[in-house]
Design a protein that fits this description.
This protein is mainly beta. It has one helix at 41-48; strands at 2-7, 14-20, 51-57, 60-67. It is built from 1 helix and 4 strands; from the N terminus they run ββαββ. It is flat and about 40 Å long.
Length: 81
């Protein structure tokens, strides 16, 4: 797994990209049970990011998210199980 953090060319967003070898099924937002130890990552990303998506190529997949630095720095986010 590799990750990259950079500012977009227009300077309006900070972009985070996480790349791995990929899986048979692409990443998706899913509901996690309160006792689950996984399954919350993209739910959190979708709640905090201005926009996000998935890029796939022959070598793996990348999940990227763009964050607006001008947005309120303290965002309350609640994950309901």
């Amino acid at each position: 797994m590799a990750w990259r953090l950079r500012q977009t060319p227009d300077g309006q967003f900070v972009r985070l990209r996480v790349t791995d070898g990929g899986a048979a099924v692409g990443p998706m937002v899913r509901a996690a049970s309160p006792d689950a130890v996984d399954g919350r990552g993209l739910h959190i990303v979708s709640g905090l990011a201005s926009r996000w998506g998935v890029d796939r190529d022959g070598l793996g997949q990348s999940v990227w998210a763009e964050f607006d630095p001008a947005a309120t720095p303290h965002t309350d986010f609640v994950v309901a199980g």
